[in-house]
Amino acid sequence: MTAKRTYMRPMTNWWQRLPFYKRYLWREATCFGVIAYALVLLTGLWRLSQGAEAFTAWRAALASPLSLLIHVAILAAFVFHSWTWFEVMPKTMPFIRVGGKRVADDTIVRSGVTAAVVATVVVLVLAAWGLK
Amino acid sequence: MTAPKRSNKPIFWALFGGGGMLSALIGPALVLVTGLLVPLGLGFGPQSMNYEQVHALMTSPLLKLALVVVISLFLFHGFHRLYHTLHDLGVHITPGIKALCHGLAALGTLVAIALVVSIH
User: Fold this and answer.
1) ipTM entry
2) Which one of A103, A124, B105, B112 is most buried, by most CB atoms within 10 A?
3) Closest-CA residue in chain B for A76?
4) For A43-74, what is each residue's pLDDT tens digit?
5) Of residues B72, B67, B45, the one with CA closest to residue B55
6) Is the Cβ pair B48, A48 closer than 8 Å?
7) Partner residue opposite B115 with nearest CB, options A45, A81, A86
8) pTM above 0.80, yes or no
C-alpha cells in the first residue's frame, strides 16, 4: 500500500498565531496555580496532623519570601481563572429563558462576576472573624 | 446481550465544572488570606493561623468536610484541565495519562480524608 499523501496543516507553535490563542493558553495554565494551591493546603493539613511543632514550621514557611512570591503568582492565576471562567459562562452553560426570551450573554457574565465579588467579601469577613 | 458501555466522561466534566466554579468563586479570597494577608500580618495578628487556632477549627466536622471538598475539587479541576491542555499542545493523551491525572486527584482526596479523620 502506498503511503498517504494527504495535506496536513502544520500545527507547530499554533498558539503564537493569534493573541486569542495565547490568552487561551494562559487561561488553561491557571490549572497549575489551582493544583499548587490544593497542594499547599494538603501540606498544611498534613503538618497539622503531625502536631504543633510541624505545623508551626509550615506556618512560618508561609511568611518566607519564596512562599510569598509563589502565592502572588498563584493569586494572579486564580484571579485570571475566575475572570475567564465567568467570561465563557454564556458558552458553557445551557440557555436560560426568562419570559420566553434568552438571558443576554452580558447579563450572565455580570451575574457570575458579581457572585464572585460577593463570595470574596464573605470569605474575607469569615476569615477576619475566624482567624483573628 | 450486554448493556452498552457508558462513558465516564460526565463524572470528570462535572468534577472539573464543580472545581472550576468553586475556585472561581472563593479561590482568590482563600489564596489572598492564607498565602499573603495572614503571613504578612496585614489585617491579621501574628497569632493568626497558629497551631492552637487552626487545630481548634479543624476539629469541626463542617470545616473538615469543607477543606476536603476544596482540596479535592481543586485537584480534579486542575488535573482535568492539565491533560486537555497537553492534548492541545500536541501531546497524545493515552488512557494511562488520563488515569494518572484522575488518579493523582483521587489520591489527594483520599489523603485529605485520611488526614482530617486523624485530627481530633
Assistant:
1) 0.94
2) B105
3) B28
4) 999 999 999 999 999 999 999 999 999 999 99
5) B67
6) no
7) A45
8) yes
